[in-house]
From TrEMBL:
Transmembrane segments: none annotated. It comes from Aquisalibacillus elongatus. FAD binds at R52, P53, F54, S55, G76, T77. This is Dihydroorotate dehydrogenase B (NAD(+)), electron transfer subunit. Heterotetramer of 2 PyrK and 2 PyrD type B subunits. One of its GO terms (biological process) is 'de novo' UMP biosynthetic process. PROSITE patterns: FAD_FR. InterPro entries: Cyt_c3_hydrogenase_gsu, Dihydroorotate_DH_ele_sf, Dihydroorotate_DH_Fe-S-bd, Dihydroorotate_DHASE_ETsu, FAD-bd_FR_type, FNR_nucleotide-bd, OxRdtase_FAD/NAD-bd, PyrK_electron_transfer. Belongs to the PyrK family.
Length: 253
């Protein structure tokens, strides 16, 4: 884990209220798995006192660059959207346990993402596609909210679902799962809690891993602000420390 300033290389609007920020810093060398996150200090002029967690969408150890994709939802992310090339950002990370993918080969993989749960799945798909057959189902509210479709298409067979039917299939990601009737060895998913619960129920009996998106306090497991019911001796897990990625059979959403 590294704490320090990283350099903003770019910060651009890529869909409705959705930004992609490219950052450069030595913490890239410490990223071990797709699905890890960073804790970002929201800067001057903001009333936010706590850091904000953002999943790492992609990273490149050769260039020391990593990518965050975030949605405008309040004062903190609005401040973030105003940063420009050459600005610095106080970041703590990488944090959390990501997707354990070592040794996965010649598998039929299903990846399911929704909204701001799509970004942490991008680097996962890139890595899995090297030795596996990957199908990605991505859900958005409408056509204006769709992002990274072209990027995912480079690595996977992509299917889009929108709530209003303005693009791709109308409905939820689970509707597309049922329509495709895929033969799957294991699955990976990230998105809103309701979506994850539906995917977990729909894919019961399959080996799967869920990345749980949640508000956090400390980000390192000290404050108990982000807990999730689990099937262990404690009865809960800390999303920031034990996760955000969990075996789908071990958590209750």
């Amino acid at each position: 884990m590294v704490h320090g300033d990283v350099l903003v290389k770019s910060n651009r609007l890529i869909a409705l209220d959705t930004y992609e920020m490219v950052l450069a810093g030595d913490l890239v060398q410490h990223i071990q798995l797709p699905g890890q996150f960073v804790h970002v200090k929201i800067g001057e002029g903001s009333t936010h006192m706590l850091r904000r967690p953002f999943s790492i969408a992609d990273y490149n150890p050769e260039t020391n660059e990593f990518v965050l994709v975030y949605k405008l939802i309040g004062e903190g992310t609005t401040w973030l959207s105003q940063l420009r090339m050459g600005d610095s950002l106080d970041v703590l990370g990488p944090l959390g346990n990501g997707f354990q993918i070592q040794g996965i080969q010649k598998q039929r993989i299903l990846v399911v993402g929704g909204g701001v749960g799509v970004p942490p799945l991008y680097n996962l798909v890139k890595q899995l596609s090297a030795h596996n057959q990957v199908t990605a189902i991505l859900g958005y509210q409408s056509i204006d909210s769709v992002f990274y479709e072209e990027e995912f298409n480079k690595w996977a067979d992509v299917h889009i679902a929108t709530d209003d039917g303005s693009y791709g299939s109308k409905g939820f990601v689970t509707d597309v799962i049922n329509q495709l009737n895929l033969s799957v060895d294991q699955y990976f998913s990230c998105g809103p809690l309701g979506m994850l619960r539906s995917v977990q129920n729909n894919m019961e009996g399959y080996e799967g891993f869920l990345s749980v998106e949640e508000r956090m306090g400390c980000g390192v497991g000290a404050c108990f602000a982000c807990v999730c019911p689990a099937k262990n001796e404690k009865g809960y897990v800390k999303i920031c420390q034990d996760g955000p990625v969990f075996d789908a059979r071990e958590v209750t959403l």
